[in-house]
Design brief:
2 copies of one chain form a homodimer. The relative contact order of chain A is 0.17. The longest helix of chain A is centred in the last third of the chain and has 22 residues. In chain A, the strands form 5 sheets. The first copy, chain A, has a 7-stranded mixed β-sheet, sandwiched between helices. Chain A has a two-stranded parallel ribbon with strand order 1-14. Chain A has a two-stranded antiparallel ribbon with strand order 5-6. By secondary structure, chain A is of the alpha/beta class. Chain A folds into 2 domains: 241 residues, Type I PLP-dependent aspartate aminotransferase-like (Major domain) (Aspartate Aminotransferase, domain 2, 3-Layer(aba) Sandwich); 103 residues, Aspartate Aminotransferase, domain 1 (Alpha-Beta Complex). Chain A has 10 helices and 15 strands. In chain A, helix 3 packs across helix 4 and helix 8 packs parallel to helix 10. Chain A starts with a strand and ends with a helix. Chains A and B meet through helix 1, helix 3, helix 4 and helix 7 of A and helix 1, helix 3, helix 4 and helix 7 of B.
Chain lengths: 362, 362
């Protein structure tokens, strides 16, 4: 097979060694005589995989001891509801910082659960081109929590310095930039991330949560939706998505072999330098709408002079073995997703194509 | 590799051809240059897989046109909460028929959402050995729905004739016997089933629901938990667990190749005849606690004279390449799960082992 350069926004490119390992082991895990897919989630063979996945999350991010690591189902969209169900009691209000479509959706779900307000928004005519400054945040000191979306796949913006929320727990949806680098987990009350961008397949979510926050969570909701239920049962309260956990394990083991998150961050920053460098060099042809300080290193968005040229670029890229460049249907344009598994080689090849295309079509 | 005879209760044995297909295609779906795991859920390659999985469910079960087919996340345990969240409005009550640990859990979650009552229970000293008769059901004619668990993995009982609930919608958790045979979907308001027994991996749930019931569902709950959200978006409202859907597709395609559910039912009944036949023949040694008319064809449970003999049987079976025979930790004893992918050959080999073991140890 000819493996394409895959710039999909998620589900996205996975590291080939993690896939090859899955292929090799698909019919038999170890010498157990059966696939990992056929193992009981209560058996020791699966348990070793499960524990290793959790331990890798802890190790790679230096998760403090007073934080739970959970592996859940339902995607980040389910966390939009579970966060307020657990952490927003009657009589309290939650603060939401809007930086894109996903934070809007998170707010909408919170409003169906309790009281939530907008602490800041950078929307102009329904579009977002930047992350707000600390001074722009109108924070309620009595809020149950402050919610942010750390990276915005649609609009291509990313938080690099997280806001100071004082004593109010900071909650972050990190689905699209989880583990692109290390971050200080202790600054957050809770972090959640769908795996399908940087660390695995769709169908599994990693949650990091301060133990005191989990313990103080609401008890008047179904047991399956309480973080405490999953934290107390090592994410084995009900049957976990065992193969998805296995794949996350494979990806994180690969990440560690690459040198961990410091090495991956270096690579991600280099990819950003190459790609934004090409766009800036050709700024009379490619227009990047995002403020320089808010430019995402995960999703690089830009426009061409016309939609017809955008389609032509996508078609030429496809011929050259580069796919997944179409912008989100809500915003159009071009979007290049450059998650951990996207190689510098892929990004360099794309940058060259952008140069050639601009020269031929300007 | 030597493939073992796998009698796990779930996650459970999968058909080897479905696994081999996954292995073959793991690095590249079709000639797309990437794994199915790396495809966008909005792309045409994945969409074909998704649509085929949904179509196979419809075709194999002859699902009527006025029913939605949904592929969701969170396991049956999440359905324990979603069913009352959607279908149990304030001022109404739901009826629960208790036949085992899973129906007890479903009732507990319903009580956290609204008003629910026990319409029947066959528990004696906390154990269940049979399915209730129609005459034993104390049904509330004004109930929002009646909930049953069609097969009980812990206690080894199964409904063969479903109850008549008049105009009250019948809701069934069919996780452990979904698609062991055909059934008349139109008799149910809603059916849900975790895939990890008969039709796929853990981490995906199939829901069949009458359209009018979905349309009339509660709107005052988070959008992600409304059946209508998923039904209206062809189970693509948020990113689905794409590889799990792919595997369900593989298993259902295999099922169809075997001759569909009529052929599978015949095979399942033959497996039951062989296994219960051996147990009955050796009834002075093996004790099956379940009433003959309620004996599950999916999970065959029995006891030996002593726990030490049970452990010895499990050890000898393991040596002979048969695993997964330990009863659920809540009830002990032996449990043989004989889902669709467990072959008649496996069951016949086990029956022979049971004969030999009884002869040597009686």
């Amino acid at each position: 097979m000819a493996r394409v350069f895959n710039f999909n926004a998620g589900p996205a490119a996975l590291p080939l060694p993690a896939l090859e390992r899955a292929q090799r082991e698909l019919l038999e895990l170890g010498s157990s005589g059966m696939s990992v897919l056929e193992h009981s989630h209560r058996g020791k063979e699966y348990e070793a995989v499960h524990d290793e996945a959790m331990a890798l999350v802890r190790r790679l991010l230096s998760v403090p001891d007073d934080y739970h690591v959970m592996l859940l189902q339902g995607g980040a969209s389910q966390q939009f509801a579970m966060v307020p169900m657990n952490l927003l009691p009657a009589g309290k209000s939650a603060d939401y910082v809007l930086t894109g479509g996903w934070s809007e959706k998170a707010l909408e779900e919170a409003k169906l659960v309790g009281t939530a307000r907008v602490a800041a928004t950078t929307a102009v005519d329904g579009r977002y081109t930047r992350i707000p400054t600390q001074a722009e945040l109108d924070l309620d000191p009595a809020a149950a929590y402050v919610h942010i979306t750390s990276n915005n796949t649609l609009f291509g913006t990313q938080w690099f310095d997280f806001p100071n929320t004082g004593d109010v727990p900071l909650v972050a949806d990190m689905s699209s930039d989880f583990m692109w680098r290390k971050f200080d987990v202790s600054k957050f009350g809770l972090v959640y991330a769908g795996a399908q961008k940087n660390i695995g397949p769709s169908g599994i979510v990693v949650v990091l949560a301060r133990k005191s926050l989990v313990d103080g969570g609401r008890k008047d909701i179904p047991k399956i939706f309480r973080y405490k239920t999953h934290a107390d049962n090592k994410s084995l309260y009900n049957t976990p998505p065992t193969f998805s956990v296995y794949l996350v394990r494979n990806v994180l083991a690969w990440l560690e072999e690459q040198g961990g998150l410091d090495a991956v961050e270096k690579q991600n920053r280099e990819k950003g330098r190459v790609l934004y460098g090409a766009l800036d060099e050709l700024s009379s042809f490619y227009k990047c709408p995002v403020d320089v300080g808010s430019r995402s290193l995960m999703n690089v968005v830009f426009r061409l002079p016309t939609e017809a040229l955008e389609e032509k670029l996508i078609a030429e890229a496809k011929k050259a073995g580069m796919v997944g460049l179409k912008g989100h249907r809500a915003v159009g344009g071009i979007r290049v997703s450059t998650y951990n598994a996207v190689s510098l080689q892929a990004v360099t090849a794309l940058a060259q194509l952008l140069r050639d295309f601009a020269r031929a079509n300007a």
